[in-house]
Amino acid sequence: MKYVIIGNGPAGMSAVKTILETEPNAQIIIIGDEEVPPYSRILITYYLEGKITKEKLFIYAEELLKSPRVEFKYPVKIISVDVKNKYIYSSDGERLNYDQLLIASGASPKLPPQPGMHGKCVYTIRNFSDVEEIHHKLVKVRDCVFLGGGMVSLKMAQALKRNGVKVTMVVSGDHIVSQRLDKVGAQIVADYLKSKNIQVMTNEMAREIINYRNRKLIYFSSGKKIETDMIIVGKGVTPNCNFIDRNQIKVNQGIVVDEHLKTSAVDVFAAGDVVESQDLLYQKYRLNPILPNAVKQGRIAALNMVGIKCSYRGNIEMNSIQLFDLPIISIGLVKNRNNQFEEITHYNSCNNTYKRLLFDGDLLVGVIMIRDIKNAGIYHQIIENRKKIKNKKELLNSGFNLLKYIKIPKEGIYAN
Ligand SMILES: Cc1cc2nc3c(=O)[nH]c(=O)nc-3n(C[C@H](O)[C@H](O)[C@H](O)COP(=O)(O)OP(=O)(O)OC[C@H]3O[C@@H](n4cnc5c(N)ncnc54)[C@H](O)[C@@H]3O)c2cc1C
After folding, report:
1. pLDDT band at 351, cuts 50/70/90?
2. What is the pTM of this model?
């Protein structure tokens, strides 16, 4: 049986590993359009920061990469899929047939439409080549402005700061990390960033970027302007579905899949950032582009591809980051429009410890933890398993025995 996988990120690589483990007669072709062999995307900012060497990005074991049953093709860009005749086509004119196809093409950074966003010295952060290019330019860069302040921007800001670059983070909303932190939590992080000499500006929308004396000049809607050497745009990601004919494979925002991660086309599966998957809290299919989902979905799609029927139950949003020495974790729902949820918080201003629990009736639906991240994995389990909570205040206390709420799975509890 010939398995073809488009995308050699975590979803694709997890599928390769699973097929190798479960199907002795499998012949696998995995295709990626980047110049380098498969690597860990989530480590690229640590490489720029100098925390790890380039070699450490390439995390996949030799036996996987050298397996005679797997062919790695890169850089090869797939430009179309013919599901009727079971072919995929690449930009260099090659045609490949498949018995089973997995689309694990991930996502790409969104670029806002304002003039100048595509210019020189304006970057997004997604691929190894993005950080490698910045790496080479660093000697000439004194300052950098971030347009957008999500978790990836925070990681990148830290990396640049450690390289001696003056960093300013500008967001259009009223607080940074708006998708994953509430206003109080975001203010704690913004104050912390200030203590590291990273400035935060809120409620500022970039209107235009122009070249100015070998530098960049950003005009904001408020009338403010900032001059800088480098701009990094961090406005979220969009699924890589451009090469898919929507009459052949159903796509909404991302590829539509069922609980077996099968698409609307025969023998075509999809996994990772490119799909819309079941969100256990929103109770609907939506984009949830994070690493653990990609890995799990890659595995489950692969099991179904080799004929082992299994279902993907769904996921909840979750992010964690170690910002310099400040750990931050956000699990589940964050927004509390019209106070629809009950909020219980604890803030210790002496050591900047913040915890915010969000309840929908007697169900825990969201947790934000700053500095004290003890038991994050158990909170995750409580949310995921929809455990009813009688004493909500008790849950705030990190010394409290949360284990009474969950059964520990054989593989243990994970926080990330
Ligand atoms: C700097 C950074 C830090 C991050 N940190 C975290 C973190 O701490 N925790 C977390 O949960 N998530 C994190 N993420 C997100 C995480 O990396 C993604 O959720 C994950 O990589 C998704 O895996 P994937 O396999 O679905 O897609 P991808 O990793 O995007 O891989 C898909 C691959 O397919 C290739 N491809 C696309 N189209 C084609 C085509 N037509 N032909 C051939 N190849 C194609 C792409 O170039 C890419 O190499 C981070 C992301 C970044 C950029």
Report:
1. confident
2. 0.95
Q: Whose CA is nearest to atom 8 of ligand 1?
A: 42
Regarding whether 130 and 30 lie in a shared domain, the answer is no
Does 398 have pLDDT greater than 90? Answer: no
What average pLDDT does the chain have?
A: 95
| Residue whose CB lies within 8 A of the most ligand 1 atoms, among 154, 240, 312, 316, for a mutation test | 240
Residue 367 maps to a domain: yes
Domain boundary among 178, 202, 233: 233
Containing structural domain, residue 166: 122-233
Transcribe 69-99 into DSSP letters.
TEEEE-S--EEEEETTTTEEEETTS-EEE-S
Residues 253 and 277 in one domain: yes
Q: Which two tokens stand for residue 226?
A: 């900032």
Q: Which two tokens stand for residue 143?
A: 């300052």
* Pocket-forming residues, ligand 1, beta carbon under 6 Å: 6-12, 31-34, 41-42, 44-45, 77-78, 104-107, 125-126, 152, 155, 240, 243, 272-273, 289-292, 294
CATH number of the CATH domain containing 227: 3.50.50.60
Task: State in Å: Cα 324 to ligand 1 middle.
Answer: 23
220 and 243 together in one domain: no
Largest CA distance in the chain: 65
Give 58 Cα–ligand 1 centroid separation in angstroms. Answer: 14
Domain end: 233, 256, 271, which one? 233
Q: Are 51 and 155 in contact (CB under 8 A)?
A: no
